[in-house]
Amino acid sequence: MPARITDPEQLKELLGIPFTPEQTACITAPLAPQVIVAGAGSGKTTVMAARVVWLVGTGQVAPEQVLGLTFTNKAAGELADRVRKALVKAGVTDPDVIDPDNPRANR
User: Fold this and answer.
1) Is the dihedral of CA 33, 81, 2, 23 positive or negative?
2) Which of 42, 80, 85, 93 is the most exposed place for a label (fewest CB within 10 A)?
3) What's the rounded Cα separation, in Å, for the pair 93 and 1?
4) Contact 45/79 with Cβ under 8 angstroms?
5) Long-range contacts of 79-87, Cβ-Cβ distance < 8 Å, separation of 24 or more
6) pLDDT digits (tens, 9 = 90+) for 69-105
7) What CA–CA distance (Å, rounded) separates 45 from 78?
8) CA 5, 9, 15 angle in degrees (round to 5)?
């Protein structure tokens, strides 16, 4: 599927989140490994999900090329769920094709 997201404002609208300038900078940073360190409840999982949606939605990476690490299973589940829903909403992935047990089939 082609890229569907072209600017940060479009991402904010899609996700319905008024990201701070610092969060937007993390989300839209050039393609490279990143580490986000922040306190509990500060929005790390939200920013990670938005980063994945940005990278996939702008066509910089395929969904199966992303590795997101969290400290808890709960955060990992939330991250996966948010990313899947946002990619479908953005029209980047087909909702009938997403299979979390077979990521290679998610193209």
Assistant:
1) negative
2) 42
3) 7
4) yes
5) 79/45, 79/48, 79/49, 79/52, 82/45, 82/46, 82/49, 83/49, 83/52, 83/53, 86/14, 86/15, 86/49, 86/50, 86/53, 87/53, 87/56, 87/57, 87/63
6) 777 888 888 888 888 888 888 877 777 755 555 544 4
7) 8
8) 75
Supply the pTM of this predicted model: 0.79
pLDDT digits (tens, 9 = 90+) for 20-30: 999 999 999 99
Q: Judge whether 48 and 80 are in contact, CB under 8 Å.
A: no
pLDDT of residue 84: 87
